[in-house]
Automatic annotation (TrEMBL):
InterPro entries, alphabetized: PRC-brl_dom (IPR027275), PRC_barrel-like_sf (IPR011033)
Keywords, sorted A to Z: Signal
UniProt feature, compositional bias: Polar residues: 142-158
Name this protein carries in UniProt: PRC-barrel domain containing protein
Gene3D superfamilies the record matches: Helix hairpin bin (1.10.287.700), PRC-barrel domain (2.30.30.240)
Signal peptide residues on this chain, from the entry's feature table: 1-28
Species name: Vreelandella andesensis
SUPFAM superfamilies referenced in this protein's UniProt entry, alphabetically: PRC-barrel domain
Length: 164
């Protein structure tokens, strides 16, 4: 996806999506912000959590599921710790969002990644193959859920009709 297209779409959707998915992971140096802009989170720096302060890269993209909830971040890593500058996919349970108000009143967002160097090296690379496989898996999961729900509905209806 192109960043400009994503930014336009995300700016419109961020009020609902980020509040519902990421707000529970927000740590504020002051009071919580309440609403988050995709513009602010895109290009946010990503660091190892746990105090090392070492930067991993920056947020390149935000991925949403069918319910418009944040599903993952795409982080463009630099050559930190030999990662070699690739785009990696980070699920929402692996990071937190920190929000800091700077002395000039501007707000800075940081993504803090709960992972070791070895775990980061094993994260999937965000590429066309990953994207197509993930879409296929999501479609399959939806179809299975849909079929199961229809089957349960029919079984319930049949049981009710049998009891009449």
């Amino acid at each position: 996806m192109r960043k400009t297209i994503v930014t336009t779409i995300l700016t419109t959707l961020m009020g609902t999506a980020l509040i519902s998915s990421v707000a529970s992971n927000v740590h504020a140096s002051n009071a919580p912000q309440g609403m988050y802009s995709a513009d602010d989170i895109l290009d946010a720096d990503v660091f190892f959590a746990g105090g090392s302060g070492e930067e991993i890269g920056e947020v390149e993209d935000i991925l949403f599921d069918e319910d418009m909830r944040v599903s993952a971040l795409v982080v463009e890593s630099g050559s930190v710790l030999g990662l070699g500058g690739r785009e990696i996919v980070i699920n929402t349970d692996q990071f937190t969002l920190e929000t800091h108000t700077q002395s000039d009143g501007d707000t800075e967002h940081r993504i803090m990644l709960e992972a070791s160097q070895e775990e980061i090296e094993a994260f999937p690379t965000y590429d066309r193959d990953w994207w197509e496989q993930t879409k296929s898996n999501a479609r399959d999961a939806w179809q299975t859920t849909k079929d199961g729900a229809q089957s349960a509905w029919q079984s319930t209806r049949d049981a009710v009709n049998d009891n009449k």
